[in-house]
Amino acid sequence: MPKSFEMPPVYLGQIVRWKPHPGSDAHAPAMVVAIGDLNVGLLVFHRNTVNGFPYDGVIHERDPKFDPARYVDTGVWAYVEDQDDYITYKVLGPHSAEAGR
Questions:
Q1: Partners of 30 in beta bridges
Q2: Band of pLDDT at residue 83, cut at 50, 70 and 90
Q3: What is the dihedral of CA 101, 5, 89, 33, to 10 degrees?
Q4: Which of 77, 12, 86 is nearest to 39 (CA)?
Q5: What distance in Å separates the CA atoms of residue 51 and residue 10, rounded to the nearest whole number?
Q6: C-alpha span between 14 and 75 (Å, rounded)
Q7: Terminus of the chain with fewer CB atoms < 10 Å: N or C?
Q8: Are the CB atoms for 76 and 60 separated by under 8 Å?
Q9: CA 14 to CA 37: how far, in whole Å?
Q10: What would the pLDDT profile of 27-41 be if each residue is shown by its tens digit?
């Protein structure tokens, strides 16, 4: 049986990349403001805007449950480039089971 998808670790206040859908070249910086077991709440800073826009229930871009009809209003999130290794080392620790994957 294949292993179920686990959302990558994030922390409150972390800056991530918000995308309208997986694989999209369009993106905006976002701050993690809530963390659930399967998704996060983000404050997204779209281009040419002054205020952040709240998005709730945002899943990770590699989550196989992505359904465009269901998540059209929330989009997906991803780490900022090179952040994946940083999070694995700094948040989980250099000796965690996740390190070196």
A1: 16, 44
A2: low
A3: 160
A4: 77
A5: 22
A6: 17
A7: N
A8: yes
A9: 16
A10: 899 999 999 999 999
